[in-house]
Amino acid sequence: MVSKPQSPPLSRSQIRKNIRNARKNLSKAEQEQAAKKIKVNFFQHKNPPKNARIGLYLSNDGELDTSNLIQSLRKENHRIFLPIIHPFNGTSLLFQRYEENSPMTQNRYAILEPKLNCSHICPLYELDYLLMPLVAFDKSGNRLGMGGGYYDKTLARYYREHMQKPELIGLAHDCQQVELLPTEAWDVPLQQIITPRQFYQW
Ligand SMILES: Nc1nc2c(c(=O)[nH]1)N(C=O)[C@@H](CNc1ccc(C(=O)N[C@@H](CCC(=O)O)C(=O)O)cc1)CN2
Ligand SMILES: Nc1ncnc2c1ncn2[C@@H]1O[C@H](COP(=O)(O)OP(=O)(O)OP(=O)(O)O)[C@@H](O)[C@H]1O
After folding, report:
1. Mutation test of ligand 1: which of 146, 151, 187 has the most ligand atoms closer than 8 Å to its C-beta?
2. Count of domains in the chain?
3. How many CB atoms lie within 10 A of CB 79?
4. pTM of this prediction?
5. Which one, 58, 135, 142, 156, has least CB within 10 Å?
6. What angle do CA 104, 123, 108 make, to 5 degrees?
7. Is 146 in the pocket of ligand 1 (CB under 6 A)?
8. At 168, which CATH number?
9. What is the ipTM of this complex?
C-alpha cells in the first residue's frame, strides 16, 4: 500500500499564529460561556487552602476570560496576584497583589498590570497556584506562549531554587489543544490544564 505523504510538522510560530486566530474568532457569547465554565471547573477540581495566594492574568488577545474566576476567588478571601514585566530586566515577571482598587497601568503590550509597589510583590514560591495564560498546549502538558519567553524565564530561575510551590496550572479554551508541540530545552511543562470542558493532569 502506498502511504499518504505526510505534511511536515508545523513550526512553533505557525502553531502560534493558527491558534491565536482560532481563539480570537470565538464569539462574545462563547467567551462568556467559557469564562463561566472555567470558574465552575476550577472549583470542581481544586480546593485552594484558606486565603490562598493565586497568580492569575488579565485576558488579552482572545485568551480565556478570567474575570468571573477572579471575582469568585476574591469572594472566598483568596488573594490574587498579576504578572508585571520586570522593571529592571524586562524579561521576566514579578507577581503583585491585585485588589479591586489597585492602581493599574498598561504594559508594553497594552495589557493592564498593577502599578509597581514593591511591598505588594509576592515571591513566586509563596504563591499556592500559578494559573498561566498560554497559546497552545499538547497531550503531554507542553505549553506554547505568546513568544516572549516571560513565563519560561521566570520559572527557570525559580525552579533552580525551589521545587514545591506554586502548582503550575494552564487555563485555555478547548480549541487551543494540539496533538504535539515542538518543544525547546527551556520550556517548563504544566502540571495541570483547565479548559471549559476538561481537567488535565500530569
Ligand atoms: N494576559 C496575558 N498577560 C501576560 C502574558 C500573556 O501571555 N497573557 N504574558 C506572557 O508571557 C506576559 C506578556 N507577554 C506578551 C508577549 C507578547 C505579546 C504580543 O502581543 N505580542 C505581539 C507583538 C508585540 C510587539 O512587539 O509589539 C504579537 O505577537 O502580535 C503580548 C504579551 C505578561 N502578561
Ligand atoms: N530559561 C530561559 N533562559 C533564557 N532564555 C529563554 C529561557 N526561556 C525562554 N527563553 C528565550 O525566550 C524566547 C521565547 O521563548 P518561547 O517561544 O518559548 O516563549 P513562550 O513560552 O511562547 O512565551 P511566554 O512564556 O512569555 O508565554 C526564546 O527565543 C528563548 O531564547
Report:
1. 146
2. 1
3. 16
4. 0.95
5. 156
6. 35
7. yes
8. 3.40.50.10420
9. 0.95
